[in-house]
Amino acid sequence: MGQVIYSLHNHTPFSDGAYTIDEVIEAHFDCPALKGHELGGIGISDHLFATPSSRELHNEKEFERLFAKETRNYVAAVKTARQQWAGRVPVFCGAEINWPLNKHMLDVVRAMIDGVDYVLFEYVDWAGLTQLANQARRWPCPVILAHTDVSVTYPNTSMDQVVRTLANARIVYELNSKLMPLANQDRWFRVLPNHRVTIAIGTDLHDDLSVLNDLPVMHEYVRQHNLGEKIFVPQPKVPEAAAVATS
Ligand SMILES: [Zn+2]
User: Fold this and answer.
1) pLDDT tens digits along 152-175
2) What's the pLDDT score for residue 247?
3) Are 123 and 153 in contact (CB under 8 A)?
4) Strand pairing category for 143-145 and 172-176
5) From the CA of 245, how far away is ligand 1's center (Å)?
6) Residue 58 has what pLDDT?
7) Per residue in 34-54, is it b (16+ CB within 10 Å) or e — as a string?
8) CA–centroid distance, residue 247 to ligand 1 (Å)
9) Which of 68, 50, 69 is nearest to 111 (CA)?
10) Are 11 and 45 in contact (CB under 8 A)?
11) How far is the CA of 176 from the centre of ligand 1 (A)?
């Protein structure tokens, strides 16, 4: 039976992805595993605020000089695609942020992501998650914990405490192709429904289009765990209808 499919974690040449925004979207329409399903929305989520040398920046002025313009260009490019694909599939503007690299710059980052529909944080350790939880509600858009294998990343914290931390801070948990095979996630997905946590679904597409085959599998897995009502759907601030009307 057909499902509504969301695919919220895709990279393009803006960061380290191989396919343009249009190619990413077309690949979803061409993917045999997605035939018979409805595409509910595709999100572009390039790495932002990452210097080529991956060095950490502590100077706010330097940070803005390096990233403000390219961030605006990125958001504008995704919004252009949104307008071009309007009526066929909703296109969302996400961003992926490396937690260790940017955790000292969050105030600047927050001010620079105007127009971003959701932020995926990657490589968040337990200290980072508690720090993020304390300020997640101050973010202008939903905050998502990216591709985290909870049992591996937080081995010294009970799953119940992890799920309560996410729920209280309204941090979305991402189910990602990187976590396949999903049987490894069974224990965590038995705990997840105990608290109100929303689940984002994505593949972390860079250059291997075969990861798109995981999308229906992951959606089915989430539904089997009674989380079908909790699948995360971004809510762009400008409604699709308005975007179409002004184009
Ligand atoms: Zn990614």
Assistant:
1) 999 999 999 999 999 999 999 999
2) 45
3) no
4) parallel
5) 32
6) 73
7) beebebbbbbbbbbbbbeeee
8) 30
9) 68
10) yes
11) 9
Q: Write the single-letter amino acid at 91.
A: V
Beta bridge partners, 95, equal: 119
Question: On the CB side of 135, how many CA atoms lie within 13 Å of its CA?
Answer: 9
Secondary structure in 3-state letters for the chain: CCCEEEEEEECCCCCCCCCCHHHHHHHHHHCHHHCCCEEEEEEECCECCCCCCCCCCCCHHHHHHHHHHHHHHHHHHHHHHHHHHCCCCCEEEEEEEEHHHHCCCHHHHHHHCCCCCEEEEECCCHHHHHHHHHHHHHCCCCEEECCCCHHHHCCCCCHHHHHHHHHHHCCEEEEEHHHCCHHHHHHHHHHHHHCCCCEEEECCECCCHHHHHHHHHHHHHHHHCCCHHHECCCCCCCCHHHHHHHC
For residue 94, how far is its CA from the centre of ligand 1 (angstroms)? 10
Residue bearing tokens 């595409």: 39
pLDDT tens track for 95-125: 999 999 999 889 999 999 999 999 999 999 9
